Amino acid sequence: MNFISTRGGCPAVSFSDAVAQGLAPDGGLYLPETLPAIDAATLKKWEKLDYAALCEEFFALFADLPRAQLSAIVKSAYTRFDVPEIAPMKKLDEKTFVLELFHGPTLAFKDFALQLLGGLYEAQIKRTGRAINVLGATSGDTGAAAIHGLLGREGVRIFILYPDGRVSPLQERQMTCTGAANVYPLAIPGTFDDAQAALKDVFNDRAFKGQFNLSAINSINIARVLAQCVYYFFAYFRLPEAARANVEFVVPTGNFGNVLAGWMAARMGLPAKSFCVATNQNDILFRFFSTGVYELGPVKPSHAPSMDIQVASNFERFLYYVMQEDAAATKAAMEDFKKHGRFVMPGFKAGEYQFRASRADDADIVRLIKTVHEKSGYVADPHTACGFADLGPAKTSVVLSTAHPAKFPDVIASAIGDEVKSPALEKLKALPIVKHKIPAEKAAIEDFIRSSCR
Ligand SMILES: *Cc1c(COP(=O)(O)O)cnc(C)c1O
Q1: What CA–CA distance (Å, rounded) separates 396 from 276?
Q2: Is the Cβ atom of 303 under 6 angstroms away from ligand 1?
Q3: pLDDT digit string (tens) for 159-184?
Q4: By the 8 A CB rule, do 284 and 297 touch?
Q5: How many A from CA of 223 to the centre of ligand 1?
Q6: What whole-number distance in Å separates Cα of residue 176 and Cα of residue 436?
Q7: Atom 1, ligand 1: residue with shortest CA distance
Q8: What number does the ligand 1 atom closest to the CA of 256 have?
C-alpha cells in the first residue's frame, strides 16, 4: 500500500517512507492511497485475536515490512502494558462501556501508537544506518509517550517542545525525569499551539530537516493514526452481540487524531454507527460539528490539558475525505484557514459524516467525574470525563478512557474527595527534573538541535 499527501503536491511513498517523513514534503499529511475494505469474513477472523495479533493483521494491510519483522515490532510494542488485555473494556451499565487506554508506560492512550512507532523508527535506523532526530510538540501526553517510546533506542535523539507551566506536574515529570541521555525536553513560553506552530516552521525548513534527518512524532504521523484504529476493532469485538447494532464511540478529543482513527476504521468496515467528538472548553471541533464553521478561538487552559488545542492538525485528513479526496480543494481550504483563521464547510448539515460533538467546561468536568463515580463507582480522569457530557440515550456508548485518573490528582480529589494513586507515578516524584527553557522560535530550536548533535 502506498501513501499520498492530502495536498497532492508530492509523489506517493511507501509505508516506511511515510512513517520516516511524518509530514509530507508539500506540507500535507499522508494517507493510504486507498482504504482497504475489511469485510464481515475478515472481521470474523479477527474477532478472537489478542491485541498484538490483531494489530499485526491490521498493519499487514499497509506496511511494506517483512511479516516476521512487523510481527516482532508489534509484539514488543505491547509488552510494557500493565494488564494482559492491553485495552480492557469495563461495563458501567447495559448501554455504557469504557475502553481503558491508559495501561501503557505513561498511563495515557498515546502509548498505543508511540510504543509501536519507537519500534518502527528503530527498524528504519537499522535499515538505513542513519541516526534520526525526532522533534515533536506536546500538550503533555504526547511528549511523555514519545519519550517513553524512544527511550534507550539506539541512533535516536528526541526533542520535545512543551508549554512551560501548562502541562500537569506529573506529565512534566514523565518527560523530564527519565535520566536518559537521548531525551531533550524543551520548555517554551506560550501555549501548545505556539509550540506546534514553531515545530511546523522547523519542519518546513527543508535544508535543516534533511541535514539533521528530522522526524515527526506528532499525531500527524500516519503510523500513529493507524495504530489507533486497532483498538476500535478490538473494542467492538468485546461488546456483547446484542450491544453491537447501534454503537457510538465517544472520544475525548484535542488534535482530532484519536477520533479520526475510529472514523477511518469505520470507512474501512468497522460496523460503528457514529462517533461523538467530546471536547473541553477549547471547543473549535464542537463548534465545527454543530455549525460547519471551523474558527480559531483563544486557547483556555483547562482541567483536561491534553485537549487544550484550537488547531486540530488531523482535521486536514478528515477534510480530504469529506471533500471527496480532492487534494486541490483540501489545500485551498487549509491555506484559506491559515490566512483567515476561519473555514466554512460548504453545504454542512449537523450530524453528517457519522459525527456529532459534545462540550464540557471545567465545572462540567468536575461534576461529571462526581456523578459517574456516584452512579457506577468508576473514576474517570478529567479528559475521559468530557466523554460523559452528552451520551446518546438510544445507543451503546463506548467511551474511550484516555488517561489514568492518578495523573490528575487535584481535580479528582476536588470531585470525589478522594485520592487515586499509581505506583509508577509515585516513583517519579523522587527523581530530578531536567529541562531546557528556550523561545518558541525556529532559529532557537534549530540552534539547540545543532549544538546537541555535536
Ligand atoms: C492527547 C490526548 C487527548 C486528545 O487526543 P487527540 O488525538 O489529540 O484528539 C485526550 N486525552 C488525553 C489524556 C490525551 O493525552
Answers
A1: 12
A2: no
A3: 999 999 988 888 899 999 999 999 99
A4: yes
A5: 16
A6: 10
A7: 306
A8: 9
94 part of a folded domain:
yes
| 144 CA → ligand 1 middle, Å | 12
Residues 6+ positions from 157 with CB-CB distance below 8 Å: 131, 132, 133, 134, 182, 183, 184, 452, 453
CA of 42 to the centre of ligand 1 (A): 29
Dihedrals φ, ψ of 401, to 5°? Answer: -95, 115
Q: What range defines the domain where residue 384 resides?
A: 85-105+223-422
**Has residue 315 been placed in a domain?**
yes
The answer as to whether 443 is a domain residue is no
Tell whether 275 is covered by a domain. yes
- Indicate whether residue 402 lines ligand 1 (CB < 6 A): yes
Number of CB atoms found within 10 A of residue 426's CB: 11
**pLDDT tens digit sequence for 33-91:** 999 999 999 999 999 999 999 999 999 999 999 999 999 999 999 999 999 999 999 99
Q: Is 107 in the pocket of ligand 1 (CB under 6 A)?
A: no
Tell me how many domains the chain contains.
1
Say which CATH number the domain at 399 has: 3.40.50.1100
Cell numbers given for 30 = 499522508
CB of 257 closer than 6 angstroms to any ligand 1 atom: yes
Catalytic positions, please? 110
Answer whether 384 contacts ligand 1 (Cβ < 6 A).
no
